[in-house]
Write a structure and sequence with these properties.
Organism: Amphilophus citrinellus (Midas cichlid)
Distance between the termini: 41 Å
Protein name: Ankyrin repeat domain 22
ANK repeats: 39-71, 134-166
Keywords: ANK repeat, Membrane, Transmembrane, Transmembrane helix
CATH topology of the largest domain: Serine Threonine Protein Phosphatase 5, Tetratricopeptide repeat
Structural class: mainly alpha
CATH class of the largest domain: Mainly Alpha
Largest sheet: none
Transmembrane segments: 87-108
């Protein structure tokens, strides 16, 4: 079950419906950065929340504002960095793993999609060190989710590693607490 938005542009972006989004923006260009009343999500945040790369590219090509935040003070970058595998993804991977390693290929494809989504968002003027209502940056979330493919992308864009969240933890503290050694080494090299 997904999210239901009151704003049609947000719903179309969340659903990955570029055609419907195009029609909505053609009839009312102000829908590009419209904020949904309940969550404060914009179409770009909604697309990033669900991981629709084609919609994100379409919105960015139309100059969607990457600096806008929702009611949780999260930007689209926060949602890209929070993306993890769903329960359905894990089930498919586990079931298909013994069958010619199909599960492994699904895992790799999902990781590639997340990297492409992150690279697309990072190619804009997004504020890399924006903090949400918990004081977390995108780097905090990638460390928390053990996204070892995404951490280097943020570090390459000079994401600050010394920002403490409301719990007093830096991204390195999170990686250390969770014993993600590969991420710990990446963070230590840049500090």
């Amino acid at each position: 079950m997904g999210i239901v938005y009151s704003e049609l542009a947000c719903q179309a972006a969340y659903d990955g419906d570029v055609r419907k989004l195009h029609c909505l923006l053609k009839s009312d260009p102000a829908q590009l950065n419209v904020k949904e009343a309940h969550t404060g999500d914009t179409p770009l945040i909604a697309a990033c929340r669900h991981g629709h790369l084609n919609v994100v590219k379409y919105l960015l090509d139309n100059k969607a504002n990457t600096q806008l935040t929702n009611k949780k003070q999260r930007t689209c970058l926060h949602y890209v960095s929070r993306r993890t595998f769903s329960l359905l993804d894990y089930l498919m991977i586990a079931i298909l793993m013994p069958i010619l390693l199909l599960g492994y290929f699904i895992l790799l494809q999902k990781q590639r999609q997340n990297v492409a989504l992150m690279e697309t968002v990072l190619s804009t003027n997004i504020s890399i060190d924006a903090v949400d209502y918990k004081g977390n940056t995108a780097l905090h979330y990638t460390c928390q989710n053990k996204s070892h493919c995404l951490v280097p992308l943020l570090l390459k864009r000079n994401a600050r590693t010394n920002i403490k969240n409301d719990d007093g933890e830096t991204p390195l503290d999170i990686a250390t607490r969770l014993k993600f050694n590969k991420i710990i080494n990446m963070l230590r090299k840049t500090s």
